[in-house]
């Protein structure tokens, strides 16, 4: 398996490239519009065929590169079920498994940051957690139908029940971290350690964070697969 972690600096977003080195089929998870040229150049240099673009959720802080990548490659654009994205090629439900060559990618419902969020268990040994679980943090829950109690339940029941040695690859990082493990986050993530469900809800409801800079353009664009109508 080929696995690459790619970074977009303005929004501190990670995009992941997954490929089967035998069949050369590939998927990109959470591509960013500003880095499409970089990503497609890498895909072509490695001789890969882009089969899927997968979204963990409808992003509020950046515009997805899926529309441009679909135009360039004809790949399918996949989003979590119940996401308000009419142009998606298909929707992924909890437990669904799609394959890139022989590599399984399993959807794990991780609602709470938004009301349609999915993590992806790749090859059974690493999980792409989107904004549900960050390294020593988690995504906010104060817009896009977010719900702190639901996020707590998602992390506790659907992520922290994975084996401790499962590698954690988040959707963002703001401190320079690249990878963690489920066991490490269960021990050291300050959002969850030492808080019960009620304490987590109270903490998240009082973060008082400013809105993402691109929220007004990113959400409507991402509901249209990342197509930017005024460009």
Global outline: globular
Quickly name the level 1 CATH class: Alpha Beta
CATH superfamily: Ribonuclease Z/Hydroxyacylglutathione hydrolase-like
**Unreliable parts:** none
State the CATH topology: Metallo-beta-lactamase, Chain A
The helix/strand order is EEEHEHEEEEEEHEEHHH
Question: What order do the strands of the largest sheet run in, or round the barrel if closed?
Answer: 1-2-3-4-5-6
User: How many domains would you count in the coordinates?
Assistant: 1
Rg computed from alpha carbons, rounded to a whole number of angstroms? 17 Å
Largest sheet: 6 strands, mixed
Approximately how much beta-strand content do the residues carry?
25-35%
Number of strands: 12
With helices defined by DSSP (H or I, 4 residues minimum), what is the helix count? 6
Q: Helix coverage percent of residues?
A: 10-25%
């Amino acid at each position: 398996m080929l696995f690459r972690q790619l970074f977009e600096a303005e929004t501190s977003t990670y995009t992941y490239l997954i490929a089967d080195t035998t069949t050369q089929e590939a998927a990109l998870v959470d591509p960013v519009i500003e880095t499409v040229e970089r990503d497609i150049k890498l895909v072509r240099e490695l001789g890969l065929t882009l089969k899927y673009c997968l979204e963990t959720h409808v992003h509020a802080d950046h515009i997805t590169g899926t529309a441009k990548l679909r135009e360039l490659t004809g790949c399918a654009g996949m989003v979590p079920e119940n996401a308000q994205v009419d142009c998606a090629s298909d929707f992924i439900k909890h437990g669904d498994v799609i394959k890139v060559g022989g590599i399984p990618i399993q959807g794990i419902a991780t609602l709470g940051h938004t009301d349609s969020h999915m993590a992806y268990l790749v090859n059974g040994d690493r999980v792409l957690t989107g904004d549900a679980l960050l390294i020593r943090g988690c995504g906010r829950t104060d817009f896009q139908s977010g719900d702190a109690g639901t996020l707590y339940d998602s992390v506790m029941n659907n992520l922290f029940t994975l084996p401790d040695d499962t590698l954690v690859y988040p959707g963002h990082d703001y401190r320079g971290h690249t990878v963690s493990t489920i066991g490490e986050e269960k021990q050291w993530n300050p959002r969850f350690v030492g808080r019960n469900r009620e304490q987590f809800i109270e903490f998240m409801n009082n973060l008082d964070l400013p809105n993402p800079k691109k929220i007004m353009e990113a959400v409507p664009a991402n509901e249209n697969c990342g197509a930017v109508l005024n460009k």
